[in-house]
Design brief:
The two termini are 28 Å apart. Helix 2 packs antiparallel against helix 3. This protein has 137 residues and is an alpha+beta fold. The chain has a 5-stranded antiparallel β-sheet with strand order 1-2-3-5-4, with helices on one face. Helices cover 33% and strands 26% of the residues.
């Protein structure tokens, strides 16, 4: 399933619901569906704020591929290129007052998803997030 979403915060609920339906279709537990939605929320928010810098009229493509073993979510945008390896991890051992603002989005995405791949070119950014299903017992 594929969808195109306007890169505005008012569309967060729509893209999260879209990903949630795919996670349910994949057979994930309620908790895992929620974790997928958190990852998509963080990724979409980061695209709006950082890649597209709040530019009006931009769109984000979202494709959800369901298989017997995993859910793959791909988000594509045409914003500013980005290297996630340049983003320092959050200092979780410090109090909220001692931490830099932000930085938790990538942490949550990496924490809740099993694989995270990012490709960036001069024209397009592609984020691929994979959530694997637990083997049946």
């Amino acid at each position: 399933m594929s969808g195109t979403f306007t890169a505005e915060f008012r569309c967060l609920e729509d893209i999260c619901a879209f990903a949630g339906r795919a996670a349910q279709q994949c057979g994930f537990s309620e908790d895992d569906v929620y974790h997928v939605q958190i990852a998509v929320d963080e990724a979409f928010s980061n695209i709006i704020e950082h890649a597209l810098e709040g530019a009006q009229g931009q769109e984000v493509e979202c494709t959800c591929t369901v298989s017997d073993t995993a859910l793959t979510i791909t988000l594509s945008d045409y914003g500013k290129s980005f290297n996630p390896e340049e983003v320092p991890g959050p200092l979780l051992d410090r109090s909220l007052h001692e931490r830099e603002k932000g930085g938790l989005g990538l942490f949550f995405i990496r924490h809740w998803m099993d694989e995270v791949h990012f490709e960036s070119s001069a024209a397009r950014n592609v984020l691929v997030m994979v959530k694997r299903k637990e083997p049946s017992r």
